[in-house]
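Weekly modeling sync, notes
Attendees: S.R. (lead), two postdocs, one rotation student

Agenda item 3: backlog of single-chain predictions. S.R. asked that every request posted to the team notebook include the full sequence so nobody has to chase files. The rotation student volunteered to paste the first one in as an example of the format we agreed on. Action items at the bottom.

Example entry:
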Amino acid sequence: MAEPDRGPTRRRDDGSASGRDRSRPPAPEPLPHAVVDNHCHLDIADGPDGAWLPTDEALARAAAVGVTRIVQIGCDLPGARWAVQAAAAHDALVAGVALHPNEAPRLDLAGQLEAALEEIERLAASGDRVRAVGETGLDYFRTGEEGRAAQQLSFRRHIDLAKRLDRTLVIHDRDAHPDVLRILDEEGIPDRVVMHCFSGDPDFARACLDRGAWLSFAGTVTFRNADPLRAALRVTPRDRVLVETDAPYLTPAPHRGRPNASYLVPLTLRSMAATRGEDLEVLCAAVDANTDTAFGGGW
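Predicted structure, as returned to the notebook:
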């Protein structure tokens, strides 16, 4: 199956292109050990003037600095379809498919949520290159009270899907910590759970770890105002730490606000090693092994 020979499925629409430097940052110093970017959106354009970084180029730039594999996450139907096709076309990629929590209320209002969930199930079951159901979860920052029932229903359906298909559950959690934990406990926790772009403090970290989750840290851990997040990183056992970009979002310091991509993972990992007081190569090796455990190796 060939990757679609077209542009991205979406363009970044958060208004971040106004007035600031939007050029792509330079490549950092390569890492001493290969790692995996376990959460990336290669199908979302976010470069100068909305330019898309083609997949081949994105993979080559990443590999040149030691980021040799990527989990491509599709979080709406076009993105999920693209993720499956891209993973089939590129050995360095595997896919995750789901409806983002903010998609659920929109689809529900249009009377399309059930059909969309059925398609996600078909995509999730389509082969070994699809390793994850995600990103799913809850987002109370962008969705108000009126959309929470649809979000929670969608989250429950994704949890069930991950368990039935033996896929890794990738959770998006924004301003919804108590309900995320409550629903996980009510539905039963899948064998493998990743807290994408972990955003909590040490207490929430421990609650997630108690449920067997891996905690995935993004460029946010490098931000100056992220002391509680760095404290959470310090209490996370080495065998439960993952790294991600969430590209094209959450570009690490010192390039915050510019386009993110997997080749910038070394900036985040160096910051993480410094925060934890660990040798960089030791941490990289652990992250690489942890990702294989969380998502399955062999790619």
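Discussion: group reviewed the output briefly. The chain has a mean pLDDT of 94.
Action items: rotation student to repeat for the remaining queue; S.R. to check formatting next week.
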